[in-house]
Amino acid sequence: MGRPNELSNSKMSRRAFLRFCAAMGMGAVASACGPSSSQPPTPTEVILAPGPTRTVEQVSLTYWQCMTEMEEIESKILDLFVKRYPYVDLTSAFVARDQYISKIDGALASGNGPDMWNLKPYQCYNYILKGQLLDLGEYLERDLQMTLAVRGFYVSALSGFDFRETYYGLPRDLSTVVAFFNRDLFSQAGIDPPPLDGDWTWDDLLEMAKAITADADGDGKVDVWGCASFRNTWWLDPVIAGDGGQAFDGEFRRDLVGMTANYDDPVVCETLRFFVDLVQTHKVAMPLDEPDEAVDPFMAGRAAMTWGLNAKMLQYKEAPFDWDVTALPKGNVDQFTYGYGNGVVVSGGFKDPDLAWDLALWMMEPGLGKAYLEAINAIPLEKTYAESEAFLQRFPEKNLPALLTSAEIARNTFTVGFEEWKEAEQAEFDKALRGELSLDEACTTINDAINSALERIRKEAGL
Description:
alpha+beta; D-Maltodextrin-Binding Protein, domain 2; five-stranded mixed β-sheet; 18 helices
């Protein structure tokens, strides 16, 4: 039997939930055939629904969020929660991103930390290891079964919130990496653009990039590149898996136990080689050192294709040319992309975990969170809403179904110390992209750099 694929969907120890997800397949769980509304309920409809009755004293709950630009939207969602749960004394704080984690750490250390706070999955693990987060596995089993069966749910959004056979966070949305392309540049080159249904390969992309790359004014310098470089190492592991490779030896675990880097494996190296060759051999991808860092080469019309999270659509809607979006190309074996969900976690010491879970579900509800989802152009978690006109008409002229395709194939390799070992990998991969190292040399130095980082991370975390 082969080693488990670290990019398969996360598994819960809760047997019923595991059996249900396994039966329905990886990625997105299909909606049931029964009737359901294509529109999410409005906040008013939710508020008018019967609220819980409890003969308890006032309960205090504090919530922290790092998206300060979302304060007005988020505050309205929280205010509606208090109206329906009048016994809750809810206070919120919106802390700048560059101070957020340090302030949470300081508050927890002093015994005055928040009861709930917003986190990305890879930010959770240190809190889990310190016993500071509530295990949400039983809540997920109890309350998401109906959502899975009736409305459908992108299970990939849970990836990363799993740790040692249970879950510690509830996602509110999903973000994935997609491919953007400039329709005007494809038209000028006289070739068809990437297919909107995502049925294309990396070799297809290479041929398109070759046809578009051009020195338009004949000065010996490329004016239009076929694509931007695929540089971000956070996004590489799903593509490696799509080619049949694995980034790690040993069973993939978020806590790194028993894992070593596998980036010098021939299959992995060939994936990395493809992206280096786009720059160094085929010369169809914009070199790292050429663009002005303040200028997006795609937005400037200098790269016909680029990559990014779906939130980039908010920036590109101002582009002075016709563009669209599709899923990342297929690999040699399968088709994957990088993705994750922003979520909320609950303090392990909060005295009313049922109430915290109610708020977490409240914040996930698309009828209440519509403005939140639109503000960051996030993918809704519930399939019935994601497939509705309410979502798909957000960008009426664009291929938003590509986001739903990407949601089904989204994966990540988040672990304890993820940012640290990815930084070590990025430094070595950049050398290959710049031609400072051969690809074979880079595969070795990448592997060594990651293993050194993993050793440091395990030692510091006591793993």
